[in-house]
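Please go through the sequence line and C-alpha cell line underneath and see whether the fold suits the sequence. See right below:
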Amino acid sequence: MNSHVSAALIEAPEQAGADEVVRLVDVRRHFGATAALDGISLTVRKGEIVGIIGRSGAGKSTLIRCLNGLERPDGGEIKIEGSSIVGLSEADLQPLRRRVGMIFQHFNLLAAKTVEENVALPLKIAGVAKAERLERAHDLLDLVGLADKAKAYPASLSGGQKQRVGIARALAARPALLLSDEATSALDPETTRSILALLKDINRKLGLTILLITHEMEVVRTIADRVAVIDAGRIVEEGQVWSVFADPKTPISRSLLSGSRPQLPEHIAARLLPTAGSEAILSIDLAGPEAHGALFADLSSALPHSFRLVHGGIEHIQNQPVARFFIAVPVRDPTLKDKVEQFLTARSARVEVLGYDTDHV
C-alpha cells in the first residue's frame, strides 16, 4: 500500500465485546429431506483467516449464504460480532450485512459502471455522499494496486484485476468479516498467488477477519490459519492448517488433501499385496522438530540395514516443517518391521503399513 493512503483506511473495524467475529452453534438447513447443514458449530475470531474445505455438495455454499443472510437456517444460532442474525427482518439485516464483505468466483461487477463506481456502489446504496464514497473508492483502489484503473470499465480488465476490484468493493463499508466464495477458482495459478498475497496483506494491515470457502487446498495452505473440513453438512475435522495437513484424521480429509501431500508412486502402489512380499512399505507422517531432524540417520544407527527410502519430502506450512516419507522394510527378519514402527512412533511419527512389495527395483 502506498504511503499516502488515508490512515482511516487501515484502521481495524471496531469490535463489539469479545473478539469473536463469527459464532455458529448447531446451525441446520434442510432442503426437503436433504440436510445441507446438519449441526454446524464454528467460531472465527478477529483477525483470523479460516478456510472451509469440502467436496461439491458438502454444504459450503449454503453455509456462506446463511452467514450473509441470503439463506435462513432452520435451527441453530448465527452471530456476527455478537449480534444474532437469525430471525431478523430484511430491514434489520441490512446494517449487519454492511459488516460482511463478499468476494465471488465470477467477480459480479456491473459492466456499465466504471471501476471506481463499482467500488463505491455499496456506499452509494448506504447513502454516503458522492465525494466521500469516491475518496474511499480511490483509497481502496490504491490498496489493491489499481489506482490507475479508476475510470476503466470491467471489460478492459484481466481476471485478476477484476477480482482486485471485487476485493476493493467488498472492503468499501469497512466490514468486520470478509467472505470469499471460491474467489480464485476462475484464475490461473500465477494470478491466484497474487490475489492470495493481497488478501494476506489486507488481513495483516486491516486486522480483517476472512472466511474462505474453497475446494482448492493450495488456497488454504497458502494463507489460512485454521481449516475446517465439511462433509455432508457437518464439520468432520478442524484445526491449525499445518496440523491437519500433517495428519488428517478422517477419510474425507485425507482424500481432499491427497493432491497436496506426497503419495506413493502409482507403479509401486499398484503392485502391493496385503500380506506377502519381500518388503513392507510404510508411510511416515510427522511434523515439528522431528520432521527435519536426524530421523533416518538415527534409525539406521539403531537398526542397521533396516530400511530404504522410497519416496517423500518435507514442506513448511505456517512456518512448521511437515513431512511425509515412504520406506521399504525387508521382512526377512519378522521382527524388524515392528522394531522400525516402534522406533518411529517413539519419535511422534504416525506410521501405517500400506502393503508388501514383491518386485522392488
